[in-house]
Amino acid sequence: MGTGMVGDAIGSKLISLGHSVMMGSRTKNNEKALAFVSKNSDNASEGTFAEAARFGEIIFNCTKGEHSLDALKSAGDALNGKILVDIANPLDFSQGMPPTLLPALSNSNSLGEEIQKAFPDTKVVKTLNTMWNGLMVNPNLIGNGDHINYICGNDADAKSKVISILNEVGWKKENILDLGDISAARGTEGYLPLWLRIYGATGSGAFNFKLVK
């Protein structure tokens, strides 16, 4: 769900691995979604958020964080029982760049938690939201892939299935750190202001953290 760079990167990578992907947007025949279908194989399709939610076994929320809840609500009960991989961050661009975090979705709360509250029958898993989209789908771009991707969520089986997909994409098991339940999204989303400052200082998104013990 989402037609931006993140949705395009995730969807294209999954198709290259043999998965079928429907890109969802607010309206059918979205220009970016049609371009996504055109450049990918027969395993690519497009539709509304609700159609994409019905289509997928696992749903990726790649919408802008400030609009994620509204976008997901437009999918209705099609999300019930599904695994929802939440990659969005609650960034507030109202004061320009660099953005801050939306006050209602930071510190003692998070977007991941609000999504889980809004969709109690959906298994929300937060991951991949602490990095540039190029690294999401190709961790080997830097450091031989030896850097950290965080994951959190309330359902252990859902996290296990998402980890299997991350392994397919190229993330090594030892570099996927399970932070616990969905409240840990407060920490991973809260990292974004620092990420943005590092990006501004280096001029590149091709960086990540490595856990050294």
Main sheet summary? 5 strands, mixed
Shape: globular
Residues in helices, as a percent range: 25-40%
CATH secondary-structure class? Alpha Beta
Which spans have pLDDT < 50 for at least 5 consecutive residues? none
Mean pLDDT: 96
CATH overall fold name: Rossmann fold
Number of domains: 1
Domain Pyrroline-5-carboxylate reductase catalytic N-terminal: 2-90
InterPro entries: NAD(P)-bd_dom_sf, P5C_Rdtase_cat_N, STEAP_metalloreductase
Pfam families: F420_oxidored (PF03807)
Keywords: Oxidoreductase
Describe this structure in words.
InterPro entries: NAD(P)-bd_dom_sf, P5C_Rdtase_cat_N, STEAP_metalloreductase. Residues 2-90 form the Pyrroline-5-carboxylate reductase catalytic N-terminal domain. With 213 residues, the chain is an alpha/beta fold. The protein has one domain (5-202): Rossmann fold (3-Layer(aba) Sandwich), CATH 3.40.50. The chain contains nine helices and nine strands. The N and C termini lie far apart (37 Å). The model has no long low-confidence stretch (mean pLDDT 96).
